[in-house]
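[retry 2/3] Nucleolar protein 2: previous attempt timed out, resubmitting with same input.
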Amino acid sequence: MAGPGMPSSLTSNSCSQQAPVFLTSLRTMGRRAKGKQADPVPLESQYSSKKLGKRKAEADDAEEALKSIQRPTKKIKDLNGKGKEKSSSKTKSKPSNSLDKKKKKADIVSDDGSEGWEDVEDAEDLKKHAKSLFKGSDESDDDGAFEGTLDDVDFDEGENDDPLQGPAQDFDFDSDSSEEPELPPSKSKKSKQAERPKKIIPTASDASSSDDSEGENNDEPVTMANMATRSRKLEAKAKAEADFAAEELQAEARAAEEDDEDVDMDAEEDANGDMSVEPFHLPTAVEREEEKASGGPDVHTVQRRMRECVRALSKFSRRAEKGRSRSEYIDQLVADIASYYGYNDFLAEKLFQLFPVGEAIEFFEANEVSRPVTIRTNTLRTRRRDLAQALVNRGVNLEPIGKWTNVGLQVFESSVPIGATPEYLAGHYMLQAASSFLPVIALSPAPNERVLDMASAPGGKTTHMAALMQNTGVIFANDANKARTKSLTANVHRLGCKNVVVCSYDGREFPKVLGGFDRVLLDAPCSGTGVISKDASVKINKSERDFTLLSHLQKQLILCAIDSVNPESKTGGYIVYSTCSVTVDENEAVVDYALRKRPNVKLIDTGLEFGREGFTSYRGKTFHPSVNLTRRFYPHVHNMDGFFIAKFKVEKRSKATESEKAKNAKEEPVMVDDEFNPDAKVDLAGFDSDEDKPYLEEAKRKRMKAKGLRPPPRTQTVVESKA
Ligand SMILES: C[S@@+](CC[C@H](N)C(=O)[O-])C[C@H]1O[C@@H](n2cnc3c(N)ncnc32)[C@H](O)[C@@H]1O
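[retry 2/3] Nucleolar protein 2: success.
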């Protein structure tokens, strides 16, 4: 495809790399919580003020964790105050979304290719239709987009007997465009919009906005004019109820704790509510071996043990068995987490280490629940208000995601397949996870700029950038995987992006093939530990070696991204590095590496109004203090996919940095033929792999130990293992 400033060499894809191990293509694992959107959670939950990175066994964490690991039969109210039973993923189904029941549902496929909701119960025709149309879904791995025309779609198909006619103009769409005329309020029957559940990812400003409905008469009929206000009022009420329920829970927990002190500390309710079950005993190493040999414990035992370990770790001196160490409890807990949630031991431990004990359980729980379905309005084709109106008319229950985006809509329910509406096919929106709006918001490309999207397929972020640039300037949308550039191209066409040049190079070939960009987005290939709810295969198929190789690749790519930026850009000179992974190796460690190797770059604020600070130290490693400017997003905190974002400003190289450059000359970007593939030998020539040596050595030692071999003595300082 042609584009302004496009060298002719880029009109055809020049890369013939092997497809990388791309996470969303592995869809063999079942999803236990499929079909549920997670309950809304407040932005920056109670953990927000906590310093992460330390294994703090706080009582608060333990209580959160105790809520997550449910007793098999005990009913615990959820925070929405509905008193529904929360259930473990292995023994019972998850709490269902109340919206599930009444209406038929259509398949919704997110841009990541994951299905958001369950199939329409008794609408086979819709299902069949949706199946064929979802092939072109934004981030699906299917290469082919829908190839028919709008005429091929039966526009009436999506209409159910009771189409929703609610208007969209009463939502807060002000941010869409200041030119929009004020639509006069019109009368309609009560829209189902008013019944929608609480918003996801509410910002502080969202929460405070609920106050303006004070004093309104609840009995007055619902009109288009008052619908949004009433809805906010309902949300406020729900929040108050949730707070009340949470207080109740805490009171219960406090009472239980007091009981603990009075009665035998180890007395425990059994599955039937009897108080006569045996006191908890942490298995010894021998007992664990025996347990393994006999096929492992039953799920109730595992649940109880996890709960007890969390309790013990929260007040270790009082609750732990005499003579047992903290690390014994942690080892048992991690082993149980791995078996309960279905992770390999290595990954369970790696993820567990990211959080305080109680919060870790929340993270694992959140990975069992699908994230909300969200779409991004393509402002090249429509306005959010108009899109919302069109979709509401088709029976889609939606609302703006939050104040932080003026193009996002959260879909609560739909009687039509959201990936196959006429509006979708006409490119009015992209099915896109809320988290993937963030890197583009952070990069904030401006009209007429020259931008590189280094790893861009299938184009969710490229097309978002094209819209922000109002189809001006040029975006080089690159992806090493040629097959994936097909869906990228399809999306670029569908969304009407005219300033995009699609190309297929290994990102490590930049800036040799092309440089001088105002801005670069590196949405790097990663392990996908932030999107486990979409792709459960990550739980078992990621090994230590994968993380080492990925981290290498990411470090190589980030240097190339930096070197592709024009430091003298009048408008830009920025890079955003992002991953959908939560591991430190793929995030802070990569960013810190870039800061060390390229003294002419510095981290700057992402401009995002939420997200947790990146780690400045982690398990014995200290990063540059400015790494706290990076942002982490978590499913259990933000109700989004796990994500990481860093924004850099590239400065001109000074004399001092020039000498630095000479020193690092051997690290000039190199042409590397291997795409990331855990089994391929990655050519690291010229890349500074020295610093990874201790890790590689330690990994080798571990592998040998696991095989019962005696590892050679350590030759280098190895980062301290588990605290
Ligand atoms: C996280 S996905 C990108 C998603 C995309 N930015 C979007 O928003 O739709 C990572 C991409 O990196 C590509 N990739 C893997 N190795 C690469 C390399 N060495 N150079 C460039 N792209 C690479 C993969 O093919 C994959 O499409």
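[retry 2/3] Nucleolar protein 2: The mean pLDDT is 70.
[retry 2/3] clearing retry counter.
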